[in-house]
Amino acid sequence: MPLAEPVQEPFPIYAVNGTYLLFDVNVVSHVRKKHHMCGVLSGTLPQVPQQNVFLGLPLQLMVEEAALLVEKGAAYVVDDVTAHKKGLKEMMEEDKKRYMDQRNEEIMKTALEHQAALEAKKAGFIAISKDKKAKKDKEKAEKKAAKEAAENDDELLFGPTKSEPAPVAVDPTPAEASAASAVSEAPEAPEASTDTASKPVTTDNLLLHYPILNTSTFPFHSPLPESSSSSLLPRPNPSSYPLYKHLHSRGYFLSPGLRFGCQFMAYPGDSLRYHSHFIANGLGWDEEIDMIDIVGGGRLGTGVKKAWMFGGCPPKQEGDERGEEDRTRVFCVEWGGF
Amino acid sequence: MSYSDLAVSSHPHLIRIVENHLLNHADWRSVTQHAFTPRPLLSGIPPEPVYVDPDVDPSKPPTEAALEQVEWLLPVDLREKWSPRKMAEVFDSLPEGVWGENAKGEKRTKRMLLAVVAEDSTVSYYFVHDGIVKPRQN
Q1: Cβ–Cβ below 8 Å for A334 and B127
Q2: Is residue B103 part of a domain?
Q3: ipTM score
């Protein structure tokens, strides 16, 4: 696995019908490492679209994640449909040819490397079998001499019983045969390798490797749009976004919480390493919540060894320079235990 | 039949029910009423610590300070509606400076017990912390 290429900020987030997607695995790991955002892998297998155990690219970001990345200036939103069409149209004939040439070159290179590796492996096997053959030949000669000496002593009648060592003597034969065939193949092998070096690669003599479209290479990279259209900007829920920012700014990793009966799950570190601490719900500062929901939340949280959290952001006071993420008040609820 | 709005918003009966429950059922001591605004509160000392810091070694016996830890209680009716603003106002009405330290030696955040009174006088208690506090059983 090659090391992840450094990602240049700002990077594009592709918006498709209100969902925010990342297609480049380097960007995905960059976002996770630097921005503490995990998103949700949403690409499934074309053959088994129903399964949700093995999911891959693209990564779908939460609206809050996309909004915060844009807010920080780490990313910009691109409309995926128009970007794709524009990219295809703008790819001139020359670019196309250059891309195809580059691709062929890459195929050739990979194929040659593969072939060379195969040859090296084959050569290794030949060396081993040659050693074996020499050893077996020696053994055989010794056995033969012993047998002849015995036959000279005994009558012909005992021949079959006396030929007991025969299987042992016969044993080397298959090995010998295979070694012989390997030797006969050996002269061909170098020829094949010189062939591939001089002749253009065809489908019969090589395994073809199809390169994966790298979205970060030039023609496919969607440049920063000159005028950012506000219709594309992620618009997170104003009552829960401050809570998201509050927890995120304090180093928590947040993931969507619908499966757990809340808005966000808050992990104290990367969600692969830690259990979540909180199941969080964001409310407006004056948004009402039934006491029975607080009780239910407290029970839910305690039942899964977490704390249930709710909170909201008070409106900005005059002279208060703190941002939403610092003004937000959160309250953790746990069962009292008595 | 549920209470009228007036009955729900008048707190003396809530205070009385919770105080009674604490003294006679849960065996608390030094239970005191506090006429704070926006809500009247109770404080008291439980027979044994009701909140054990998740970072404290559970095999060690509770410290002197833990045994004398005063807990604050907010009696509420089950059918009330609350909001982040109301909760913040109650926390802001709590006195500063009596909150002690957590197991890591940091000044600990305020906490209180939400004493939820249901129609049938059942009282159930939930801890509410003012801020991000690691849950106990993790």
Answers
A1: yes
A2: yes
A3: 0.88
Residue whose tokens read 């509420």: B76
Span A288-310, average pLDDT: 92
How many angstroms separate the Cα of A160 from the Cα of each of A98, A142, A151, A153, A154?
Answer: 75, 20, 11, 14, 11
Does A318 reside within a domain?
yes
Count of beta carbons in the 10 Å neighbourhood of residue B44: 19
Give residues 38 to 97 of B whose Cβ lies within 8 Å of A.
46, 50, 76-85, 87-88, 91
Nearest-angstrom CA–CA distance, B56 and A147: 84
The beta-carbon neighbor of B85 closest among A292, A314, A337 is A314
CATH number, domain containing residue B88: 3.40.1350.10
Per-residue pLDDT reduced to its tens digit, A262-283: 999 999 999 899 999 999 999 9
